[in-house]
Amino acid sequence: MKMLSQTGAPQELTADGLVIGIYEGEDTPAPTTAAWDACVSGQIAAILASGDFKAKPNATLVLHTLAFPIKRVALVGLGKKGEATLETLRQAAGKGTSILRDLNLKHITIGLVDDAPRGLKAPAELAEIAQAVTEGAGMSLFQLTDYRTRDREDIKTVETVTIWSNHSETALTEGLRHGTVLVESIALARTLILHPSNVVTATRLAEEAQRAGEAAGLSVKIFEKADLEAMKMGGILAVNQGSVHPPKLIMMEHRGGSADDPPIAIVGKGITFDTGGISIKPGEGMEKMKYDMAGGAAAIAIMVAAARLGIKKNLVGLIPATDNMPSGTALKPGDVFTAYNGLTVEVLNTDAEGRLVLCDAISYAITEKKACAVIDMATLTGACIIALGTEAVGVLGNHQGLVDQLLASGERTGDRGWQLPLWKEYNELLRSDIADLKNIGGREAGTITAACFLQRFVGDTPWVHLDIAGTAWTEKEKPYRPKGPTGTPVRAVIDTLMHWPAL
Ligand code: BES
Ligand code: MN
Ligand code: ZN
Prior knowledge:
- With 503 residues, the chain is an alpha/beta fold.
- 36% of the residues lie in helices and 20% in strands.
- It has helices spanning 31-39, 43-50, 86-102, 116-119, 126-140, 169-194, 202-215, 225-231, 234-240, 294-309, 354-367, 382-388, 400-413, 446-458, 490-498; strands spanning 2-6, 17-24, 60-64, 72-80, 107-111, 160-164, 219-223, 248-255, 264-268, 270-274, 314-324, 336-338, 344-346, 373-378, 393-397, 417-419, 437-438, 463-467, 473-474, 484-485.
- Strands 7, 8, 9, 10, 11, 14, 15, 16 and 18 form a nine-stranded mixed sheet that branches.
- Helix 7 (202-215) runs parallel beside helix 10 (294-309).
- The longest helix is centred in the middle third of the chain and has 26 residues, at 169-194.
- The two termini are 40 Å apart.
- Manganese (II) ion is lined by residues 274, 276, 351, 353.
């Protein structure tokens, strides 16, 4: 699928389908809409006047145009004028585009009505509007059909999505380009997550990171098992102990800042499948644990997007990758290992494995790469799903300025988050009788104690932890998030890198 932009007279558009946003309570269409309305013999005005279509957010109505070269027009509700946000536009674009895809249309144009900015709650530039619409449309069309071998002719795929506006061409192409990079990077993350774990092993994840990273201009280094042994990365090796697949530590570097600027570390949990290990999970629903590398996939996508967008920061992406398996050689409850930074960890539950691979990657970022800040993302705790459900990323950190920026970026991009406290009192829960700390804190405050564990490896370096256990996957289709992997928090983190606060 290709995403394009177009300006010019509304009547001269050619496409198979056109998406038009409509504000609630308008009985006469906005000027550009009126130009299209004239092409369809006034059907739009007639429908609005009849009250058949109330333009509630994401409501849709598809017209058959008869005489107009564009065969179908999808009206999508934007809700009340003055209440809409960029997220409203993203969702409407996603909804309209996927509805026309389902009708098997190949070339879809989205018309940015000329008063779109006036309808928003907070004023936005045309470039931001075009970006939001590109994201919504592009993200809504994601599908992975590789494993379907029969009736492939029934698979509906769009060839082009064109964003049309009668305003500034420069702003339009700028927004389109930015949005397209995000759409493509998120599709990469979603693809890696959706493939099963017998396909996406740590080895395959590393190969894909290398291929996509180098194509985007990143330098990529893969640390092999022997390297991890030489480096004494006790956490990654401990989790990998029960596996027949070798572990990898993927490192991706982007040099967009000045030569001597320390990098920002982007760390993602790459557990390609989480059985729980010897502390094995119940069978029901275990298949979903292929998405336990969603943080790693997001980190790869962020690095690729940052390179393609030319973000003016030095970045180092680190993705520790392995599956978590039970076997005769597996890590056992009660075992003690020494992490990369020298701390000893008593493992009381082998299912709390994410923190064990992240701690080594975080220490490496700080001691070897001299990271000035760390953002980590992980499907870390079931407790986060209990606390925040599937709407909000759990956000915790030791630097309020950085936490606030991530929350603001989440709000702006639609990758929303909510902060949980990280008071020092919680650290008591990780006290071990035999080692420096234990890997679980008991039933209480599971998301917080997981973050406390990571904090012991971060020290004072400004750091934010994103728990995406509830948001990385959706069981319920949402306007631009088909069922399955969502690509959260790629957009929030890219936005934070572009609005980097003084630390
Ligand atoms: N990968 C899981 C967390 C998870 C659960 C993500 C459900 C997505 C959906 C993680 O490794 C895990 O198993 N965490 C344990 C921690 C516990 C043993 C302290 C959990 O949340 O139960
Ligand atoms: Mn686990
Ligand atoms: Zn896990």
